[in-house]
Amino acid sequence: MEGDSVTLHTNLTEIQNDDTILWMFGPKDSVVSQITRKAGLTSFFVTDDERFRGRLRVDQKTGSLTIRNTRIRHSGKYKLSVSREQTTIKIFNVTVFGDVGKMDEVKSVSVMEGESVTLQTDAEIHSDDLIVWRFGDKGILLAKIDVETKEISLNDDDERFRGRLQLNQTGSLTIKKTKTENTGFYELQIRGRESSQRFLLSVTGPWLSPGLIAGIVVAILLVAAVLAAVVIYYRRKISILEKKRLKRNPVKEGGSVRLHTAAKIQEGDL
Fold first, then answer.
1. What does the alpha-carbon distance between residue 214 and residue 208 come to, in Å, rounded to a whole number?
2. Are 66 and 7 in contact (CB under 8 A)?
3. Quick one: 6-94 is in which CATH superfamily?
4. Distance (Å, rounded) from C-alpha 36 to C-alpha 84?
5. Does domain 107-204 bear CATH number 3.30.9.10?
6. Mind listing the pLDDT tens digit of every residue in the chain (270 residues)?
7. Are domains 6-94 and 107-204 of this chain identical in fold?
8. How far does the signal peptide extend, from start to end residue (predicted)?
9. What Rg, from alpha-carbon coordinates, does the chain have?
């Protein structure tokens, strides 16, 4: 797996005089290491190819080759050539898988739906680290960064996260505009140092979103304004009718007024 070390053995007990040990890689047999022993003196060479920089170790007694802190790019064919009285060739096929190891502590993080959240790594990042983020019980790959090459890859195939993931150089993962379906376990693995963290993210949807609350407030204000307008209208209507009634029967102060009855008075009425 990525971050592990692998040793390719020569099966020699000791390099002898006049031996030449040659390690080659890839379809073009590019030389990555060479050891030559002549008259008790040993010459030693290790490639400065960026793909292997700082990762190759050669046992100067046996000639075995170790690749430390592996990456997927180190997958391929390795050829060993041992020259003594005759030359023998041995082929090694190395496959490095992108996977993560065991997980440690769990940190709980809560956020409201629609907000952004950043899952922070507490580990100190080294220049040759490989940082991997996975999601859920199935360990779906979300994001990966090779700090050495600054190469970042994000999962845009999963609709739950499409276009909303961001991974920075510190290894922290940001999820923008979170959804309730983003709830679950998130795993951070720093390969090569067996450092890991685990997060439990809870995304909750409010019963009333801020937009819905604002809409309700506006509706209440509109209803109150309509009721106020109705009350004012009827008050004015009543006031106008009262004024019209007074105009029909004007009476000056101190004057007399006759109130007419429409009924016919009969004999015997009081």
1. 10
2. yes
3. Immunoglobulins (2.60.40.10)
4. 11
5. no
6. 777 889 999 999 998 888 999 999 988 899 999 999 888 788 889 988 888 888 899 998 999 999 998 887 888 899 999 998 889 999 998 888 765 444 456 888 888 888 999 998 877 788 888 889 999 878 889 999 988 888 888 988 889 999 999 998 888 999 999 988 898 889 998 876 667 888 888 888 765 455 655 666 677 778 777 777 777 777 777 777 766 665 555 655 666 656 556 556 666 655
7. yes
8. none
9. 43
Residue with tokens 């008259």: 39
CA distances from 266 to 74, 121, 262, 269 (A): 128, 108, 13, 6
Which of 188, 151, 156 lies closest to 171, judged by CA?
A: 188
Distances (CA, A) of 45 to 3, 13, 22, 36, 229: 24, 20, 9, 9, 94
What are the distances in angstroms from CA 172 to CA 119, 131, 198? 6, 9, 12
Nearest-angstrom CA–CA distance, 152 and 199? 21
Q: How far, in Å, CA of 269 to CA of 229, rounded? A: 51
Ordered by start, the domain boundaries in the chain are: 6-94, 107-204
